[in-house]
Model the fold of this input.
Amino acid sequence: MINAIDVTNLNYSYPDGTKALDGIDIKIEEGEKTVIVGPNGAGKTTLFLHLNGTLKSQGKNVSIFGRNISEMAIEERIREIGIIFQDPDDQLFMPTVYDDIAFGPLNMGLENKEVDEKVKKALSIVGLEGFEDKVPHHLSYGQKKKVAMASVLSMEPKILVIDEPTANLDPRSRKELIKLINKLNKNQGITIIMATHDVNALPQLSDRVYVLNHKIIAQGSPREIFSDSTVLKENNLEAPDVFKLFKVLGFFGYDYDTLPLSIDEAIEELTKTIETNNGHIHLHIHEHTHQNIRDFINNNDHHH
Amino acid sequence: MEYPEIDKYSSLESPIHNFDPRTKIITFTLLIFSSVFVEDIRFAALALIAAFILLIISKLPFKFIFNHVKWVSLFILPFLIIMPFTVDGDVLVNISYITVTHEGITYGFLITVRAFTAILLVFTMLGTMRFDTTIKALHMLKIPNPLVQMLMFTYRYIFVFLDEFQRMWTAMTSKGFKPGLNISSISKIGKSVGMLVVKSYERAQRVYQAMLSKGYTGNPNTIVKFNIKTRDYLITFLIISFAVVLHISPVVLLQ
Ligand SMILES: Nc1ncnc2c1ncn2[C@@H]1O[C@H](COP(=O)(O)OP(=O)(O)OP(=O)(O)O)[C@@H](O)[C@H]1O
Ligand SMILES: [Mg+2]
Done:
């Protein structure tokens, strides 16, 4: 089977000598949701810029659907893979929202009428119908972020690369964005790869997680990654709050099957436990509780 | 923050607002050139009155225009003061080495009137359409592409730049920085301006990457939907006739 993204032994240093990427291997199947986590400056953005050939390394290390990225024409490339950047002000460079969203489709050589339709459709996907004539500097940050997304969705790429989708968003916009990303993945089969520091959103957004710190440190399901406390600690990461809470509940005698990663999973877990225990949850303090909790807190506090 | 927006009142309704952007740019430019080259002070005054009438028709608030014009006048008014003393001609007043000439006064007034006419017309033109429309109209008028794209990006990023400056200024003052005219203060401002330049350079790189990611190849990428109506031809005809009359009548009437 052909992978949607195939990165083999990718190395990259910036012109000033900063080694950003060191022997990266990543394989992503079509329709998968992959999250890249790692501390600030780990090379996530640098990796993403390689995925559509904006940055180039010496070798032929990046393939999209089995084809080498450096051998693809620009119009082909933007049909296959779209990148939504970290800062929407970088991505919205045209005078109006319409112009920004029409930019990609026009580069694909579409007719004006088709371009119009693509713009309309992209705006309705992100829920900003009627924003065509707005100028970017009159938009809120969250709206800019959505327009930036629409400006890539209008090219209808098969793979969507998103750098920090939830950063700086208010809770509601964050929730909407998570929902939107999942919808695109589920309904349209778009392969999604994103970078995020938002560990609480991560479980809902990923089938597979890569920990990147210039090299690939670890990979696995969200549960596997969050259960590995050494990897977390060494890469400035933390498990989701719900995950940690249930770990603490465990010290109070709560007997879990699996540690839930999200609120939804927590509800499921609690319901199951209560039903199997005749309608009760039993918690208590035993002789090791305090010591366990102290160890747990110290282990999670990176300063100690 | 408060942006200095020239197109703040572009959504009002007036015949000037409804005037097709391309024909508006052409006719106003013609009228501006025509008024700037008028030699006779009386016809220059006539052009100024016409500019005022156009401004009134456009319904742009006077306060808005005044706010912009007052800064520009700082550059014009010196002419009114200097000209009477420097142009040769019939001497009106003579105090020791300083002479004021009749020609000087007329010429000073002529320059001032011409300049104000031009400014009023420019603001009426730019103030009655959105700036992105102006840029697109220029694109359609076959203004060279690099120039149009430069205008486009300047227009987009001037606001981002202003925000960045504002943020930096807030950061500086909240750390106790007091702007002043001493060496240390000026050197700090110098350094922060340097930082802004570096930041802009880095942003430019990221924007370029984003453009490449959307398939940019250097070609213009906008769709413009203008259509010229009969009314536009009429207004164009009226304004251009006036521009021509400004130059023909002095020759005919003042023989
Ligand atoms: N244009 C550049 N020139 C030189 N070095 C750079 C440049 N861009 C990034 N770097 C460096 O490359 C390394 C990786 O940066 P990158 O932006 O890819 O990290 P990141 O994982 O996206 O970080 P963050 O989580 O903060 O967004 C960092 O050490 C950074 O300082
Ligand atoms: Mg980054």
